[in-house]
Structure formats: structure tokens, C-alpha cells
Amino acid sequence: MHELFDRYMGVRWLAPDATHIPEMPPVAMAPIEYGYVPPFRYRWSNSYHGAPGSAGHTEFERAHHFRMPRFAVSYGHNFYQLVPPPEYFPEHPEYFGMNEDGERVAMDDPEDYKREWGQRALDRIYQLCMTNPELPGVIMKTLRRWHAANPGAEFWCIMQEDLGTHCLCPECAAVDEREGTPMGSMLTGINRTADLFAEEFPDKDIMTYAYAYTRRPPKHMQPRDNVYFQLCTIECDFLRPLEERTRDENRRFMKDLEAWSKLTGNLLVYDYAPNFASWMRPHPNLHVIVPNLRTYAEHDVIGTFVQGDPYGTGGMTPLRTYLIAKGMWNPYVDHAALREEFLRLYYAETAPYMDEYIDFMTEYALEKKVVMGCFDDGAWLDATFARRAIEIMKRALAAAETDTIRRRVREQWLRLQYVGLTCAADVTKEPGRYLLERPAEIDSLEFLEWCRELGIRQLDEQYGRFHVPLEKSVEEHLGPLGQRRPKEVYPYVSIENARYAAEVAPGLAGAIIRFEDKRAGKDVFRGVQSVASQRWTLQEWYLQAKGTTVREEPLRTDYEIIAQSPRSVTVRGTLESGLVVERTAAFQSDEGPLELRYTIKNEGPEPIVPAVKVHPEFWTHGDREPEIWLEKNGQWEKHPLKVMEAGFFGGEPIEAAGVSRWAARVPGKRLVVAMTVHPDELENLFYFFNTRNEHVNLELVPDRAPLEPGEARTVRTAISLDTRLPKD
């Protein structure tokens, strides 16, 4: 019935709160002969209006022919639901993954297991050992219970946890080596379980992911007929259509899509629509949504799930959701015509301005050569963009003739105020201070009030941390309420010797925001230009590992200066727990490196685990992959670089024992950043790089044995810059 009204009478279900009904229905209709079989058997999304339990779960989904598979009990990352570690790990550690040290690892603490995902000790979450011959029988015990509770379901899910910590035992490693992918060991266990499942439930099916480390299909293995796969696009560039293959990320995905399409007829795609790092940031993917769905259809994909923003917080979410819904039903629809129609009907007299903004947003990102992942950090959003975008939206507000249209435009205006508060600022340097100016018209406290007014509940995915208060979400993005303003002043302290110059900004999380080799004219920090993203600075961060549940982020938003001279400055940050971190940055000689000395002290009444790390994020001056070098016994050796599946980032911990210095070399840039190492003061080293964001981190993880009240420990390092590895 919805198709009749849509196709022949011009009714449009634009949003749960916006159904367009033409003023004059057709006077008469000719006989209709029409039939249509959509290419996707399954079509569903949680984007905004499609979230189960929301107002859009009813008529909007029916109008757009959503058809979600009937899942039994659990859909998503569920290894630990299938085989709960507290129940099985004590007696059967062999069911769980083996790490690089040959240890079986699982989150077997019952209290930790009960926590929300974001509060768990993630270092204890390893995947199951999928080549273990007993494991399918264990999984079947859970599947039987789920079947008894949901006998009408279509699919029972066996899906990896949302981490890359797959089993490295000899059996799994051998299968993965043979198959050229960790999907080898995964499919070994899936196929065995599918055989058992088919014996008991011959008319039901298994679904699993081809996701992250399992995305690449196996070279030789064949999946069972009752196994379905969801191929995930999480690594892709969403600024450019997949079929154009203009980016490595998309070329790799298309290669996998083509291989999976040949391997199985039971292929679905799990797609990603918004920016999960921040719903509020502009996310110019509107022009690729329908073309990508068309690409899936042309590769015999039988179903699509598009994960979106379930709260409708993101910019242009109504249009994005409309394109998703229409494209899933008919991926060959004219998406440009869809966009024009939606803007005209939903935004009425302000449609030309919304159209202008979308074109501007998309063209700006393309001109900046942005790689638009679904966790984009917004580094491309500068004051120039924010100023122009806000100006367009102000014209739209002025043109709005009704409260309804004005509110819809205001929702987009607020997203651009967020950009105006978080974008790279226009920076003016004066003696002893930086002046930062952004195009926003409101401060962060006013932003919070507008969020409340417009019904916005959170600003990002808050992955695994449910029910985060709006105030906390705003503070995580904008800092303490009222502090982030269109105009800000940040004092800094300069220290220098004959060769180097450094600047410390106590109000920017105590960061070292400049470290420059004056002779070479090369700076490896440029933190003032990236205040919102915390990039390209040296800070102290919380560390999430070995039982800690805090987020990795700067320890404090500000530090205090407790001592300074022309060649040294000491800053101090005190945490609520009573942990105190003091950092002295000093030049001890005319030509010498920047020496850092940390004192980490417990000034509280109880023992404290000092889960902190030294977090220098060095600017690589381009998108070249860095080299990591270690000095041992006076000799430099190149460390193999660990690159993640996505190809543009990577990293890993390195044992500190025996290392006297380590360095990052940037090929083609005549840049080497070296740091001294005192192994007895450290638990380990950790490097991380991201070529898209042009940085490499050389992080120091101090000894994290508990500090008793009054106890302190020291961490030392010295940073130097050169064109080659230091010899002395």
C-alpha cells in the first residue's frame, strides 16, 4: 500500500515527523500493472528513524520496506556470550585465544564481564580459539538455548568480538597461513559449528562477520551452505564511490567484495553512514550512499545493513536516512533527483541554502583530498570552512518562514556551531601568549543549552558506554563547560638553547606545543593549530591496559607552572585520585637535546596504580610511513613496522629491556626524532603511526606497580632532532 501511495500519488515518507501529502490527489488512475523484486532480500538500518524502539520503527520503516532478518537473542559481537569466559576459562583456557607470548587470555573476571563494553579491561579480551575441536560443541549448547527461546528466528549469530586480538596458537596460525587470512581459522570453527547446527536445525542458518582482520576471504576453504557473511566496510573512504577505486582503502575493499561474491551466494554488507567519532561533524558522504548500494547489488549481495546515528544527532541525518532507505529498496534510483526532492519537501523555502551547503561541504573535502573514514577526526575542518558554512546557514535561518522549518534549519546551524568551536583556529602569536579565534557564535555552555532545546542526547557513538549524560558528552568534545569560546587566550612559556626552541602551554593540557630545530627550521609539534583534536603535541595521557578502564585522553585540561627559567620549565598536574605528575622540560647545554624528567607521586590516602603514559605525537610533515629504530648495545637496528589491515595506521608495544634509545625516521623528509630510554623506569615502549594524520608517536609507559601514599617514581627521556640516526 505504501508503494502505491508513493509511486502513483506522490506521498513521501520523509521522516517520522514529516510525511508529504500533495494538496491535490490524482482525479483518476489508469489500471496499474506493476511488479518489483528488490535486489536486496534484507534491508535495514538503525540510522535515526530506523532505531528499534524509536518512533521511526513503525510507519517510516514500513513505508520504506525495511526487512530486518529475524535474529535469535544476539546480533553483533558475541563470542563472549556464546562462550562466557567466567564459566569456561578456569577449566578450559584452550577454548580462548593465545597471545604473542603463548598465553591463553580471556576476560574471566565475573565483575569485569558484567561491565559495559567501554568499562572493561580490553587487554583481557581475546577471540575464541576457533580451531579447537571441542569449541563447536560448546557453542552449540548456547545456540540450543537461544533456539528454544526464539524458534521462529532465521539466523543464529557467531560473531567475533570487536577487537583484533585473534588467536595465535600454532593450529590457528597454520590455518591462517595456508588461507592467507585469519578468516581461515574463523571459518574452521564456523563450518564445524554449522555442521552440528544443520543436523539439529536444518531449516535455520548461521551468520558471521567478514570484518576487520577477517574481512579477506580464504584462499581454499569453502563455507557451508547454511553460513551467511556480513562483509563490513569500516576501513573504506566514504567521500568517493567504491566503484571508482580511487583510494587504496576502496580498492582493497572491492577486491575482497569481488572475491566474496565468487565464494558464496550468502553475502550481505554491513555499511557505515555517519561519523562515529562525532555525530556533529559534517560528513560529506551523501553523494556515495546510493552508488555504493548499487555496487553491492551488482556483486550479488543479498542484504544490506547500514549502521547510522540512532539518535538523529548528526548533520543532515534526515536526508542521509532517506537516501539509505530509498537506495536499499532500489539502488538504481536517481540519487541526485532524490536529494533535490527531499530538500524541496523537507526544507521548503530554505532548500536552496541547504543545497548550497551540501555542495560546499562536499567540494571542500574533495579539494582538501580528505580520506573520509567513518571515524573522521575533522582535521580538514578549519576556520575558513566554518565561517562560510555558518554564513550559509544564517541565510537559511533568515529565509525560514515557519517555526517547523526554522527548527530544522537550526538543527544544522548547531552542528556548524560545533565546527566553529572545534575547528583549527585562526592563530595570532604574541609575546607569551597565543590568541585563538574561531567562527562560532556561541560558547560551549550555550552549545549545551541548544542541545537540550533541540533534543540532542549525545555527541558521538559513546561506544560501549551507555547512558553518558549530555553534559559529560559535551565536555569530552569541548572541554569544561564555558571554557571553549570563539575567542581564547593561551599563555605559553618559551625555553631554548643555541640549537632548539620549545614552548609549553599549561592551559592546553600542559602540552609541549613546539619543539623546533632552529637550524633546520623544522618543528615536530604544532599543537596550537590542533587544540580540539589534541594532535601534534607532547602530553601525559591516561592509559587503558591491564585492568584499567579509563579512556585514553590527556590527564588534565590544564597544568600549573611551578618553576621556570630561560632554559627550563616545570609544570604540575594533580588528579582527583591524588596522583600528581610533574614534568620538567630543560636544555642542559647549548647544543643538547630537550631533557624531560617526570616525577609521578601519590599524594592521596590510598594506593594508586599510575595508569599514565608519556604521549608525544610527532608531526611527520607528510603522509610517508615512518621507520622505527632501536639502539641496543650501541648499534641501531630497524624494527619491523606493524601495519593494521586498513593500511594507513599501525603500532605495537616494544619491550624496553636492552634499549638505550629509539627513534622514528621519516623517509624523504630528512627527519629523525630520537628519544633516550631508561628501561628500569619503564614497563614498555609503544609506537603508533597514522599516515593520514601525519604523525608518529613514541610513547613511554612507566612502571605501573601501585604507588603507596607518599611514594614517587621518576621517568626520564631526552628528545633530539636530526637528519640521520644519532651516532654518539
Please identify the top-level CATH class of the domain at 494-722: Mainly Beta
E-strand count: 29
**Largest β sheet strand count, sense and barrel closure:** 9 strands, antiparallel
Q: Give the name of the CATH architecture of the domain at 494-722.
A: Distorted Sandwich
Q: What's the end-to-end separation, in Å?
A: 80 Å
The total of helices stands at 17
Shape: globular
Gyration radius, rounded:
27 Å
Low-confidence stretches at least 5 residues in length (pLDDT < 50)? 49-53
- Share of residues in strands: 15-25%
CATH fold-level name of the domain at 494-722: Beta-galactosidase, Chain A, domain 5
Structural class: alpha+beta
Strand order of the largest sheet: 17-18-19-20-29-26-25-22-23
Protein model, in words:
The chain is α+β, with helices and mostly antiparallel strands and 728 residues long. Among the domains are: 69-205, no CATH class; 354-478, no CATH class; 494-722, Distorted Sandwich (Beta-galactosidase, Chain A, domain 5), CATH 2.70.98. It contains 17 helices and 29 strands. The strands form six sheets. It has a nine-stranded antiparallel beta sheet, with no helix packed on it. Strand 27 and strand 28 (695-702) form a beta hairpin. Helix 7 crosses helix 8, helix 12 (335-346) crosses helix 13 and helix 16 (444-453) packs antiparallel against helix 17 (470-478). The protein is globular and about 90 Å long. Residues 49-53 have low confidence and may be disordered.
